[in-house]
What does this fold into?
Amino acid sequence: MALAGVVAYMAPASGQADGEATPIFGIKIPPGYRDWKLISVAHEEGNLNDLRAILGNDAAITASREGTLPFPDGTIIARLAWSYAPLEESSKAFGRLQSFVAGPPRNGVQFMVKDSRKYASTGGWGFAQFDDGKPADEAVHNTCFPCHSAAKARDFVFNRYAP
It folds into this structure.
């Protein structure tokens, strides 16, 4: 029984028994992230061309609702994305394609983890992308902070809370 407790204690904090950490930032997929609350939704155009749900852990939700900047350490924001597909039934109802729904997942799942000391060189944020549960390569992770630098005034976070 004691051995079982030790084995359980030694399991990675990510909740993945053998989950890999991302290069550069060392982030693992947070357990239960799919059950986090919704911060906002977005439609990206251009090369990304996807629908997104932005989720947050409790710290992210509280800071987002209160408009707290900078976000506090411990904040984790998740980005899920899907291609969007026309809902054929909308054509029947409206005489044209009008409604679009989430299609296949796109561009993996991404996370921003706030730790102002650990990630001081990237504005206090660690970045992660996982494709099919595996960390994306270092080249992908090298693009995160330069992109988010455009949102420096919002603590490097693009989304806004949607009440």
Remarks:
- Helices lie at 2-10, 58-66, 88-94, 138-141, 144-148.
- The CA atoms of residues 88 and 94 lie 10 Å apart.
- Confidence is low (pLDDT under 50) at residues 1-17.
